[in-house]
Amino acid sequence: MGGLSAALNISVGALQVDENALATSSNNVANVDTPGYSRQVANLVETAPITLGNITFGTGVGLQSVTSTRDSILDLRVNQETQQQGQLDAFIGAGQQIQSLFDQTSGAGLQGPLTAFFNSLSQLSANPSDTNTRQAVLTAAQNLATAFNQSSVNLSTLQGSTDQSVTQTVGQINTLTAQIAAVNTQISGTTGAGQNPGPLVDQRQLLINQLSNLVDVSEINAGNNSLTLTTSSGAPLVVGGQSFALSTQVNAATGQQDVFSQGTDITTKITSGQLAGQIQIRDQEIPALQNSLDTLAFNFANAVNTQNEAGFDLNGNAGGAIFVPPTAQASAAAGLTVAITNPALIAASQDGTTGDNANANALLALQNTNIVSGQTPLNYYSGIVFKIGNDVSSAQTSEQTGSAVLQQIQNLQGGVSGVSVNEEAANLIRFQSAYEASAEVSNAVNTLLQDTIGILGAA
Amino acid sequence: MSIRLDPDVLPNLLVALQQANQNETTASQQVATGRGVNQLSDNPAAEAELVANANQSSEDDQYLQNAGTLQAKFQVADSTLDDVVTALTRAISIGTEGANGTLNAGDRQAIASEVQGLITQTLGLANTTYQGTYIFAGTAVNTQPFVQNATTGAVTYAGNNGTTSVELSNGNSIGANLPGSQLFQNAAGSAFQSLQDLNTALLSGNESSIGTAVVEVQSALTQVSTNQVFYGNALNQISSTDSFLNQDQLNLSSQENTLVGIDPATAASNFSESQTAQQSLLDATAKVLGLPNLFNYLAP
After folding, report:
1. In-domain check, residue B45
2. Rounded mean pLDDT, B28-46
3. pLDDT band (50, 70, 90) for residue A2
4. Which of A91, A128, B60, B264 has the fewest other C-beta atoms within 10 Å?
5. Chain A touched by B140 (CB under 8 Å)
6. What is the value of ipTM here, to two decimals?
7. Which of B10, B12, B55 to mutate to test the interface with A (most CBs of A within 10 A)?
8. How near does any CA of chain B get to the CA of A11, in Å?
9. Is B290 part of the contact surface with chain A (CB cutoff 8 Å)?
10. Does the structure show a pLDDT above 90 at B134?
C-alpha cells in the first residue's frame, strides 16, 4: 500500500534501524581496546516489498541481524602458534636459569674447580713431600666435590620449582576449561533463540587462546556453535557444557607430579603449551644434565681413587681412596665427598720413597686421559656446556620465528576483527545523515498530513 | 575492495619497542663486559671452547709456578756444585803441591789437614737441603744422603738412585733431580773416595800414591762437572719454556677475545645504533599514536 501513512511507516522504521546501527557503531567504538572483541556489523536489508496491482512498492529498511566479524581459521592458527610459543617460553625461561649455572664467561660451573684440582696435582708433582702442597690438593678436591654437589643441588631446586609450576599450570588449565564449558552452555542457548552469539564467541575465543598458552588444544566443532576441546592426544578438556579437569599425582619413581586425565597418565603425551615446556625441563632437560654430571663425577672419582690406590702415601703405606667411592652412578655428583683429611695420605709416590712423584704425575695425567665416556673429564664437561647453551639457543631461534609468525597471523586477525575508529566515525556520519534524512521525511509527511487534515477541516 | 588492515597498530609498535629495548640492553651489556657472548645460548660452541681455553690458561699459570719452584731448586743445586768444583779444584792444586819431593812430612800433614777440611766442606755441600729436603738424596729426600763414619772417616751414601720428572708444559717433562750417588760416588770418579785417598796418601808421604790420588780427584771433578751440566741445561729449558708459556697465554687470551670478546669500537657503535633505533621508534610511536582520526574532524 502506498500513500502517506506508508511513507511515514517507512521513515519511522528507518529511524529505528539507524538508531540500532548507530548503537552498533557506538558499541564498536566503546570496545575498541577490549581484548578478544570482534567488531560487529549491523546487517541492513530491504524489507519485503508489497505489490499493489501491477506496482511493487518497497516497504523500507530492516535490521536483519548484528553479527560479529571473525575468521575461525585465523583464530585456530593463532591458538596453534600460541601453543608453540607457550611451550618455548616456558622452556627458555627455565633454560636460562640452568645455563647461568654453567656460564663459562662469568666463571660459573665446574671448569674452574676441575682445573684447580689438576693444577694442585701439578704443583704436588714439583714438590711431592711438602705438606702444604699436599694440603692444597685436599682443599682443591674438597672444592671440586662442593662444586659438583652445588651444581646438582641447584638443578634439583630448579626441578622442584618447575614441578610446582606444573601443578599451578594444571590448576590454571582447570579454571579455564570450567569457564569455557560455562560459555559453551550460554552459546548453545543464544544460538537456539536466533541471537548473535558473537560476544560470547569472543569471550570463548579469548579463553581458548589463554588455554592454548598453557596446553595443546585440539578444537572440534560439536555443532550448534558448541565446541569440544581435547588435548592433541585426545584427552578431553571440554565437551559442550562439561569440563574435564586434569589432575596431578606424585610419581613414586621420580617424585615428580604426573598429569592425569580421567585416570590416565598423560604426562608424556602433552606436546605443547607451557605445561609441555615445563614437563620437558623437569623430565628431560634437568634429568639428562644430572645424569651427565653424575657420569662425570662417578668416573672421575673412581679413576682418581684407583690411581691413588696404585701409589704410596707420605708414610710409605699403600694409598687409599681420595673420594668416598660412589656406590652407583646415580646421584654421584650430589654425593661426591672427600674421604680423607690427612694430607699425608695422598699417594704421590710410586715406589714408597717420600721424594718420588711418579704417582702424582699419573694422577695429573688423568686430566688428559679418556676416563669419562671415552673423553677427558674437561672435554666431557665442555660437551655438557655446549648442550645446555645449544638447547636454549635452538629454543630461542624457534621462539623468534614463531613469534614473527604469530604476530603476522594476529595482524591478519586484527584485519578481520579489529575495530577501526575511522571506519566507525564514517558509519556514524552515514547513519546520522540517514537518520536526519528519515526524520526530515517524517517531518515532510507530517506536514503533508497536517495540510490534508487542514483542508479536510476547512471543507 | 582492498584487504582490510589491522586498524590497531599498537601491538606491532609495542613488539618493535620491546625488541629495540632488548637490543639496547644487549648492546649496553656488550659495552660493559667487553664481551659479545654473555650467556651460553649466545654462542654455545664458543662457550664450550672457552672451557678448554680457560683450563689451558690456568694450567699454564700452574706450569709457570712449577717452573719457578724448580728454577729456585736447580739454582741452589747448581751453585752448590760450583762450590764442590771449587773444593775439588783446590784439592787438586794442593795435592799436586803435596806430590812435590821437596816437601817434608810436616808440610804434607798440613796439606792433609786442609784436604780433611775440604772433605768436611764437600760433605756439607752434598747434604745441602732446599726447603727442608735433601736435594742430592735421590727420592729419599728426608734421609741425610752422605754419612761419614766417625772412626774410618769413610763416607757412605744413604740416599737412593730415584729420579723424578715434572711436567713443564703439556707433554714436556723435565728431570727434577740427580741422585747424589751419581754426582759424588760415581764409579768413574768418586769425590769422597778420591779426597779420602788423597788424605791417606799425603799422610803416608808416598809421592806416587799422592800423584795417583790427585788423578782420582781429577776424575771425580770431571764427573761432578759433567753432571752439573744437567742443571745448567734444565735452567735453560725452564727459561725457554717460560717464554713459550707466556706466549701461549697471550695466544689463549687473544683466542678468548676472538671467541667471546667484542671489539670496543663495534660494541660502542652497536650501542649507539641501538639507541638511535630506539629513539626513532619512540618518535614514530608517539607520532602514530598522536595521529588524529576522523572523529577529530567532526563538527562539535
Report:
1. no
2. 90
3. low
4. B264
5. yes
6. 0.89
7. B55
8. 25
9. no
10. yes
With respect to residue B53, please indicate whether it lies within any of the assigned structural domains.
Answer: no
Q: Nearest CB to B54: which of A104, A118, A419?
A: A104
Domains of chain B: total: 1
- Give tens-digit pLDDT for B219-262: 999 999 999 999 999 999 999 999 999 999 999 999 999 998 98
- Quick one: three-class SS letters along chain A? CCHHHHHHHHHHHHHHHHHHHHHHHHHHHHCCCCCCCCCEEEEEEECCCEEECCEEECCCEEEEEEEECCCHHHHHHHHHHHHHHHHHHHHHHHHHHHHHHCCCCCCCCCHHHHHHHHHHHHHHHHCCCCHHHHHHHHHHHHHHHHHHHHHHHHHHHHHHHHHHHHHHHHHHHHHHHHHHHHHHHHHHHHHHCCCCCHHHHHHHHHHHHHHHHHCCCEEEECCCCCEEEECCCCCEEEECCEECCEEEEECCCCCCEEEEECCEECHHHCCCHHHHHHHHHHHHHHHHHHHHHHHHHHHHHHHHHHHHHCCECCCCCECCCCECCCCCCCCHHHHCCECCCCHHHCCCECCCCCCCCHHHHHHHHHHHCCCECCECHHHHHHHHHHHHHHHHHHHHHHHHHHHHHHHHHHHHHHHHHCCCHHHHHHHHHHHHHHHHHHHHHHHHHHHHHHHHHHHHHHC
- The parent domain of residue B127 ranges over 77-253
Strands A264-265 and B129-130: unpaired
What residue type is A346 in one-letter code? I
So what's the pLDDT on residue A417?
A: 92
Residue B15 lies in a domain: no
Please check whether residue B22 touches A, CB under 8 A.
no
Per-residue pLDDT band for B291 (boundaries 50, 70, 90) equals confident
B242 in a structural domain: yes
Write the CB contacts of A108 (distance below 8 Å, at least 6 apart in sequence).
A100, A101, A102
Residue B69 at interface with chain A, using a CB cutoff of 8 Å: yes
What's the mean pLDDT when you consider all of chain A?
93
pLDDT in tens, A197-218: 888 989 999 999 999 999 999 9
